[in-house]
Amino acid sequence: MAEGGTLSTTRLILRPPVAEDLPWVLEHMNTPAVMAHLGGVRAEDAVAESLADDIAAFHTGGHQRWTVWLRDGSETRVGRVGLFHLRSPAAPEALRGQREIGWTFAEAHWGKGYASEAAEGALGYAFGVLGLPCVYGQTSDSNVASTRMMQRLGFARRAALDYVDPDYPPADNPTTVWLREAPRD
What we know:
The chain contains 4 helices and 8 strands, in the order ββααβββαβαββ. It has helices at 22-29, 44-58, 114-128, 144-152, and strands at 7-8, 12-15, 64-70, 77-85, 99-105, 134-140, 156-157, 175-181. The two termini are 20 Å apart.
């Protein structure tokens, strides 16, 4: 990891979140399209509180959610990717507290491979710097793009761990669980 928690990939820079990200998050990430499988658009104060939590957690050993920027000098934010501790009370006990990856990207930047590239950067950090033996991912069958991305990233479905999450509508249930193990030397 580079200075201050920043990661770099071929086309992207993953930077720790800052308060100045809030207007961009509200305008480009808290949209019906981006939030379609994540419980829907949230109130501005909830988004601000979540970003403040991300900032605090990043620097105190909690979860890491990076803001993803293009590396082309344009200073363009394109999305967010993070490593979290799985907290859903609806999840099977075996999953709670495990590390999971998640991503959201602004609709204008879908289909360009940025999400996969950022996720690979975060997974490299998870397996290399953190030394995690595995990382989980969660989605739903209704989120076809995310399901395909799990497969492209080398995650394997763990259907025995799927669960119904009452925080999401029936169309986005059950939550499907995926696992990627650390590379073996």
